[in-house]
Amino acid sequence: xxxxxxxxxxxxxxxxxxxxxxxxxxxxxxxxxxxxxxxxxxxxxxxxxxxxxxxxxxxxxxxxxxxxxxxxxxxxxxxxxxxxxxxxxxxxxxxxxxxxxxxxxxxxxxxxxxxxxxxxxxxxxxxxxxxxxxxxxxxxxxxxxxxxxxxxxxxxxxxxxxxxxxxxxxxxxxxxxxxxxxxxxxxxxxxxxxxxxxxxxxxxxxxxxxxxxxxxxxxxxxx
Length: 223
Fold this sequence. Notes:
Binding site for [4Fe-4S] cluster: 33, 37, 40
CATH superfamily: Aldolase class I
CATH architecture: Alpha-Beta Barrel
Structural class: alpha/beta
Number of strands: 11
GO molecular function: 4 iron, 4 sulfur cluster binding; carbon-nitrogen lyase activity; magnesium ion binding; S-adenosyl-L-methionine binding
Cofactor: [4Fe-4S] cluster; S-adenosyl-L-methionine; Mg(2+)
Protein name: 7-carboxy-7-deazaguanine synthase
Mean pLDDT: 91
Shape: globular
CATH class: Alpha Beta
Largest sheet: 9 strands, mixed
Binding site for substrate: 14-16, 29, 77
Distance between the termini: 29 Å
Number of helices: 6
Low-confidence stretches: none
Protein backbone atom coordinates (compact mmCIF):
# COMPACT_ATOMS: atom_id res chain seq x y z
CA UNK A 1 0.00 0.00 0.00
CA UNK A 2 1.26 3.44 -0.89
CA UNK A 3 0.84 6.95 0.45
CA UNK A 4 1.99 8.55 -2.82
CA UNK A 5 0.43 8.32 -6.28
CA UNK A 6 1.59 9.52 -9.73
CA UNK A 7 -0.85 12.30 -10.54
CA UNK A 8 -1.62 13.52 -14.06
CA UNK A 9 -4.35 15.97 -13.07
CA UNK A 10 -7.23 16.58 -10.69
CA UNK A 11 -10.20 18.81 -11.39
CA UNK A 12 -13.82 19.57 -10.49
CA UNK A 13 -16.20 19.18 -13.42
CA UNK A 14 -19.23 17.24 -14.60
CA UNK A 15 -19.23 13.52 -15.24
CA UNK A 16 -19.62 13.30 -18.99
CA UNK A 17 -20.26 9.59 -19.54
CA UNK A 18 -22.41 6.69 -18.46
CA UNK A 19 -25.09 6.48 -15.78
CA UNK A 20 -23.92 9.52 -13.77
CA UNK A 21 -23.50 11.84 -16.78
CA UNK A 22 -24.31 15.44 -15.93
CA UNK A 23 -23.53 15.20 -12.21
CA UNK A 24 -20.98 17.30 -10.37
CA UNK A 25 -17.82 15.26 -9.76
CA UNK A 26 -14.18 15.58 -8.80
CA UNK A 27 -11.73 13.69 -11.01
CA UNK A 28 -8.37 12.27 -10.00
CA UNK A 29 -6.42 11.05 -13.04
CA UNK A 30 -3.52 8.77 -12.17
CA UNK A 31 -0.59 8.03 -14.46
CA UNK A 32 0.37 4.60 -15.73
CA UNK A 33 -1.29 2.23 -18.19
CA UNK A 34 -0.06 -0.98 -19.80
CA UNK A 35 -3.27 -1.76 -21.70
CA UNK A 36 -2.21 0.43 -24.63
CA UNK A 37 -5.36 1.07 -26.67
CA UNK A 38 -4.41 2.58 -30.04
CA UNK A 39 -7.43 4.93 -29.96
CA UNK A 40 -6.96 6.08 -26.34
CA UNK A 41 -7.65 9.81 -25.83
CA UNK A 42 -5.42 10.06 -22.75
CA UNK A 43 -2.19 8.54 -24.04
CA UNK A 44 -0.33 11.27 -22.21
CA UNK A 45 -1.15 9.41 -18.97
CA UNK A 46 0.51 6.12 -19.92
CA UNK A 47 4.05 6.78 -18.69
CA UNK A 48 3.90 7.33 -14.94
CA UNK A 49 7.59 8.34 -14.86
CA UNK A 50 6.60 11.65 -16.48
CA UNK A 51 4.51 12.66 -13.49
CA UNK A 52 5.31 13.51 -9.89
CA UNK A 53 4.32 11.23 -7.03
CA UNK A 54 1.94 13.27 -4.91
CA UNK A 55 1.07 12.49 -1.32
CA UNK A 56 -2.43 11.24 -0.66
CA UNK A 57 -2.83 14.05 1.87
CA UNK A 58 -2.31 16.72 -0.82
CA UNK A 59 -4.78 15.05 -3.16
CA UNK A 60 -7.30 14.81 -0.34
CA UNK A 61 -7.00 18.56 0.30
CA UNK A 62 -8.29 19.25 -3.22
CA UNK A 63 -11.07 16.68 -2.85
CA UNK A 64 -12.26 18.40 0.35
CA UNK A 65 -12.50 21.74 -1.43
CA UNK A 66 -14.42 20.24 -4.35
CA UNK A 67 -16.80 18.49 -1.98
CA UNK A 68 -17.54 21.76 -0.19
CA UNK A 69 -18.28 23.31 -3.59
CA UNK A 70 -20.75 20.59 -4.56
CA UNK A 71 -18.92 17.58 -5.99
CA UNK A 72 -21.13 14.60 -5.26
CA UNK A 73 -18.47 11.94 -5.80
CA UNK A 74 -14.80 11.42 -6.61
CA UNK A 75 -13.89 9.61 -9.83
CA UNK A 76 -10.53 7.82 -9.87
CA UNK A 77 -9.45 7.34 -13.46
CA UNK A 78 -6.35 7.11 -15.62
CA UNK A 79 -4.48 5.69 -17.37
CA UNK A 80 -5.34 2.50 -15.61
CA UNK A 81 -5.76 3.49 -11.95
CA UNK A 82 -5.66 -0.04 -10.58
CA UNK A 83 -2.03 -0.42 -11.60
CA UNK A 84 -1.60 1.18 -8.17
CA UNK A 85 -2.73 -0.08 -4.79
CA UNK A 86 -5.56 2.27 -3.83
CA UNK A 87 -6.42 0.88 -0.38
CA UNK A 88 -4.93 3.81 1.54
CA UNK A 89 -6.28 6.39 -0.88
CA UNK A 90 -9.86 5.15 -0.61
CA UNK A 91 -9.61 4.90 3.17
CA UNK A 92 -8.37 8.50 3.32
CA UNK A 93 -11.24 9.77 1.14
CA UNK A 94 -13.81 8.12 3.41
CA UNK A 95 -12.02 9.20 6.58
CA UNK A 96 -11.99 12.87 5.59
CA UNK A 97 -15.74 13.18 6.24
CA UNK A 98 -16.02 11.16 9.44
CA UNK A 99 -17.79 13.08 12.19
CA UNK A 100 -19.19 15.66 9.78
CA UNK A 101 -22.83 16.33 9.07
CA UNK A 102 -22.30 15.88 5.34
CA UNK A 103 -22.55 12.39 3.88
CA UNK A 104 -19.29 10.55 3.18
CA UNK A 105 -17.78 11.27 -0.23
CA UNK A 106 -18.71 8.53 -2.66
CA UNK A 107 -15.87 6.98 -4.65
CA UNK A 108 -16.19 5.90 -8.27
CA UNK A 109 -13.53 4.18 -10.34
CA UNK A 110 -13.14 3.74 -14.10
CA UNK A 111 -11.09 0.68 -14.99
CA UNK A 112 -10.41 -1.80 -17.77
CA UNK A 113 -10.40 -4.56 -15.15
CA UNK A 114 -7.04 -6.07 -16.09
CA UNK A 115 -5.50 -5.62 -12.63
CA UNK A 116 -6.55 -6.98 -9.25
CA UNK A 117 -8.93 -4.90 -7.19
CA UNK A 118 -7.69 -2.62 -4.43
CA UNK A 119 -9.61 0.06 -2.59
CA UNK A 120 -13.33 0.26 -1.87
CA UNK A 121 -15.88 1.81 -4.23
CA UNK A 122 -19.47 2.96 -4.36
CA UNK A 123 -19.55 2.65 -8.15
CA UNK A 124 -17.38 0.66 -10.56
CA UNK A 125 -17.36 1.52 -14.24
CA UNK A 126 -15.82 -1.35 -16.19
CA UNK A 127 -14.53 -0.46 -19.65
CA UNK A 128 -13.17 -3.80 -20.92
CA UNK A 129 -10.85 -3.99 -23.89
CA UNK A 130 -10.93 -6.61 -26.62
CA UNK A 131 -7.17 -7.14 -26.68
CA UNK A 132 -6.87 -7.34 -22.89
CA UNK A 133 -9.99 -8.90 -21.29
CA UNK A 134 -10.99 -8.08 -17.69
CA UNK A 135 -10.73 -10.28 -14.64
CA UNK A 136 -13.96 -12.06 -13.70
CA UNK A 137 -14.15 -10.08 -10.43
CA UNK A 138 -15.11 -6.96 -12.36
CA UNK A 139 -17.74 -8.69 -14.46
CA UNK A 140 -19.41 -9.77 -11.25
CA UNK A 141 -18.97 -6.61 -9.18
CA UNK A 142 -19.12 -3.67 -11.58
CA UNK A 143 -22.15 -1.37 -11.70
CA UNK A 144 -21.92 -0.44 -15.35
CA UNK A 145 -20.09 -1.80 -18.37
CA UNK A 146 -19.00 0.67 -21.02
CA UNK A 147 -17.52 -0.69 -24.23
CA UNK A 148 -15.81 1.63 -26.70
CA UNK A 149 -16.86 1.05 -30.29
CA UNK A 150 -14.51 1.57 -33.22
CA UNK A 151 -15.31 -1.36 -35.50
CA UNK A 152 -17.65 -4.33 -35.88
CA UNK A 153 -15.37 -6.57 -33.80
CA UNK A 154 -16.10 -4.33 -30.82
CA UNK A 155 -19.82 -5.04 -31.17
CA UNK A 156 -19.08 -8.78 -31.19
CA UNK A 157 -16.91 -8.29 -28.10
CA UNK A 158 -19.72 -6.40 -26.35
CA UNK A 159 -22.13 -9.26 -26.98
CA UNK A 160 -19.64 -11.76 -25.58
CA UNK A 161 -18.85 -9.63 -22.53
CA UNK A 162 -22.54 -9.40 -21.64
CA UNK A 163 -22.90 -13.18 -21.90
CA UNK A 164 -19.91 -13.67 -19.61
CA UNK A 165 -21.21 -11.04 -17.19
CA UNK A 166 -24.62 -12.67 -16.90
CA UNK A 167 -22.89 -15.92 -15.94
CA UNK A 168 -21.12 -14.16 -13.07
CA UNK A 169 -24.13 -12.81 -11.19
CA UNK A 170 -27.81 -13.33 -10.58
CA UNK A 171 -30.01 -10.22 -10.80
CA UNK A 172 -31.65 -9.28 -7.51
CA UNK A 173 -35.39 -9.51 -7.06
CA UNK A 174 -37.73 -6.72 -6.10
CA UNK A 175 -40.51 -7.15 -3.54
CA UNK A 176 -42.94 -8.33 -6.20
CA UNK A 177 -40.56 -11.16 -7.07
CA UNK A 178 -39.63 -9.88 -10.51
CA UNK A 179 -36.00 -9.88 -11.56
CA UNK A 180 -34.34 -6.49 -11.56
CA UNK A 181 -31.22 -5.74 -13.55
CA UNK A 182 -28.43 -4.40 -11.36
CA UNK A 183 -25.92 -3.71 -14.11
CA UNK A 184 -26.15 -1.22 -16.94
CA UNK A 185 -24.64 -1.94 -20.34
CA UNK A 186 -23.37 0.91 -22.54
CA UNK A 187 -21.84 1.23 -25.97
CA UNK A 188 -19.75 4.37 -26.34
CA UNK A 189 -18.58 5.40 -29.83
CA UNK A 190 -14.91 6.32 -29.99
CA UNK A 191 -14.48 10.06 -30.38
CA UNK A 192 -14.23 11.30 -33.99
CA UNK A 193 -15.00 7.84 -35.38
CA UNK A 194 -17.99 7.97 -37.72
CA UNK A 195 -18.00 4.21 -38.14
CA UNK A 196 -18.07 3.73 -34.39
CA UNK A 197 -21.03 6.09 -34.02
CA UNK A 198 -22.99 4.33 -36.76
CA UNK A 199 -22.29 0.85 -35.36
CA UNK A 200 -23.16 1.81 -31.79
CA UNK A 201 -26.38 3.63 -32.69
CA UNK A 202 -27.64 0.84 -34.97
CA UNK A 203 -26.89 -1.79 -32.35
CA UNK A 204 -28.58 0.06 -29.48
CA UNK A 205 -31.65 0.78 -31.65
CA UNK A 206 -32.10 -2.96 -32.10
CA UNK A 207 -31.01 -4.10 -28.63
CA UNK A 208 -33.02 -2.30 -25.92
CA UNK A 209 -31.03 -3.92 -23.12
CA UNK A 210 -28.10 -1.67 -24.15
CA UNK A 211 -27.79 2.11 -23.87
CA UNK A 212 -25.75 4.67 -25.77
CA UNK A 213 -23.13 6.62 -23.82
CA UNK A 214 -21.67 9.81 -25.28
CA UNK A 215 -18.69 11.87 -24.14
CA UNK A 216 -20.85 14.89 -23.43
CA UNK A 217 -17.99 16.80 -21.78
CA UNK A 218 -16.24 16.92 -25.16
CA UNK A 219 -19.29 18.42 -26.84
CA UNK A 220 -19.49 20.95 -24.02
CA UNK A 221 -15.71 21.56 -24.28
CA UNK A 222 -15.13 21.12 -20.56
CA UNK A 223 -12.67 18.87 -18.71
